[in-house]
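Quick one: structure for this chain?
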Amino acid sequence: MEQKDLLRPKGTIDVPLHRVTNDVFADGEQSIEDRIDRVLNYEIRIMSGNSNRPLALEIAKLLHVNLTNADVKRFSDGEIFVSIRENVRGKDVFIVQSTSPPVNDHLMELLIMIDTCKRASAKRITVVTPYYGYARQDRKSAPRVPISARLVADLIIAAGAHRILAFELHAGQIQGFFNIPVDHMYAIPVFAEYLLKEGVEKKDLVVVSPDAGGMERARALAKRLDAALAIIDKRRSGPNVAHVMHVIGEVEGRRCIIVDDMVDTAGTLTQGAQALVDHGAKSVQACCVHAVLSGPAIGRIDASPLERLYVTDSIEMTEERSSPKIRVLAVAKVFAETIRRIHREESVSSLFDEA
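Got it. Here's what it folds into:
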């Protein structure tokens, strides 16, 4: 059969299995599409740096592929060296790398991996960023300050990436910093599915945004949980004076869930939880997508009135950043399905449409 026949629409493909040796279709779990990829030399390759290797391994496992054999190491002077140990020529390469702490090391790893794949003749390079560092520097909040989120986008493009797959960006407008296709994934379905499975009581439930910028995220979760909405208005009563918390919405006698895109030092989160309790909330839990958890975060969380903090594994959790109050939700399944759809040129947005 001529190669052009392999490109016919689904349902009309007649793959001549008798012409292909057994080693080509060795994996019994491969679909017809996977087999065609082999014939056309356009298979998925999952690569990972050192930022979140467990997540990359789980994604590869769900896609029924092996993690691409690559060395990402450092010389004694701190320079990063990348060497890919298998062929990626003509492949559809997905580089899974969060720019999480240490941010600059992981960012440089990502840039060098992109350049390595480009020089190894990968057909398409998609950067998968479970956590996009520098995202909070997305605008000029004062004179003579940088827009570092845009600079990072420019670096990724200049390195040779063809596409970006981002997970819960701090601000959706960051997608506009790239002049290449961007697919944006959301964590709210993951949180909602878990809370509903755990049997969260919808009666007297309130979803709370810690600031005005997070209302869209809070509204999405409230809609899925059929809950009310509230917002915390944080102000300073004067220069160098502690924050004054105003709660907009009815929280007295209710169970509150704070929703935010990340928890870093946990100052805003724990202050918000205390403000809700001071306004009569019955209980306070929180859903934060990215568990940066730097500095005094763990101590603050343990000492706060928070009953439970739900986070995702977009950033690898370590022993020193753990707490009895923190529960980590896996997102590898969402990443794997999104990567599969991108590789198959299928819709990604429909994956996050509310049922």
